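Hi everyone, sorry if this is the wrong subforum. Our group has a chain we'd like a structural model of before ordering constructs, and none of us has done structure prediction before. Sequence below.
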Amino acid sequence: MKTWEKKILSFSVMVPLAVCVPQTVSAMHIMEGYLPPAFGIGWGALCLPFVVAGIMAIRRLVAEHRKVMLLLAMAGAFIFVISSLKIPSVSGSCSHMTGTGLGAILFGVPVVSVLGVIVLLFQALLLAHGGLTTLGANTFSMAVAGPLLTWGLYQLGKKTRLPKLANVFLSVMLGNLFTYCVTSLQLAIAYPSPEGGMLASVGEFLLVFAPTQLPLAVIEGILTMLVMMGLENYASAELSELRGVKGGVLL
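Answer:
Right subforum, don't worry. Here is the predicted structure as tokens:
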């Protein structure tokens, strides 16, 4: 990484430290205006280091590995399409597949965080899905936390020699569920239960999401598994080049 890139990345890490200091505040797609303004800023700041690192990684991919750009565009389109299919929940949010697990497996968390924030921004502006004031919170849950778990589980599965397709399915399914666990936590922090506090509120939000999110997580795992099978058959050259990207996530 170049010196100026290290400086920018270091600055991006310092921002959440400055913004997210402990204080008394109130505070998937969480809807517009549902979280207090301080939460929108705080969650956005936490996403910033991932997004900055992702922009740098994409810049290198564009310059050095043009062939994998097709996979990058496909991963972004996959996120947009399946995360737009939403089922409303009474909690002020909605249940839907995320699509970010595929990008996390192919490119890693920083790159998929960039894809996620772009998708969420377009959905907020064009589909009234999510919102600008909750963009940071939605990005953190869907494009950082969920992909981070997916990536970690996938790497663990490779080390334990788990069959590849089973590894993809389990990693993506659990990453999807973790996204909604994080979303429930975000909502609970902003709106703790009068009786039982934040922990009780987390349980309440999880119960709201569970009936729709559990089957959606299974479906997303299956869809991602099928997409990976298709890529192995029809984009083997691009996958081979991606395996050789220095610092990238190897399949």
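For your construct planning: Confidence is low (pLDDT under 50) at residues 6-27, 246-251. The CA atoms of residues 188 and 223 lie 30 Å apart.
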